[in-house]
Amino acid sequence: MSKKELIVKKDMEVSDVVSYINELANALKAGKLTVTKGDDSISLTPKGNINLRVTASRKKNDEFISFELGWSTVEKEEKKPSAFSISSKDAEPKKEKTEKIKKPENKPKAKPESVAPKTEPSLLK
């Protein structure tokens, strides 16, 4: 299959973006997604496991979020999804993990066994 790509960048009101995202959700549920720009269009068939990548960032006065969805048109082995969430609420501050440092036990040190010095047998003169 040949590669075809359609990129759309556009400034829109929040309500218009929400409409597009809702339509995207409906298209994903239906298993048929068509993106049209002018006379050009591309139709996709989302199915099976969908790989989702969400990137959120902030640079000075600009904030960004991007969603990347991908799937295979041939069946692949399922992967266990990792936990994440998207919310309209602020994130709760993370609690710092406190580790208890175990103090070494005061065990008496083992005394080395005494070793008798080697003596050479005296030579009789």
TrEMBL record:
Signal peptide: none
Compositionally biased residues, Basic and acidic residues: 89-112
Top-rank taxon: Bacteria
Pfam families: Amphi-Trp
Domain Amphi-Trp: 8-86
Region ranges (Disordered): 76-125
Listed NCBIfam families: amphi-Trp (TIGR04354)
Protein name, as recorded: Amphi-Trp domain-containing protein
Organism lineage: Bacteria, Pseudomonadati, Candidatus Auribacterota, Candidatus Auribacteria, Candidatus Auribacterales
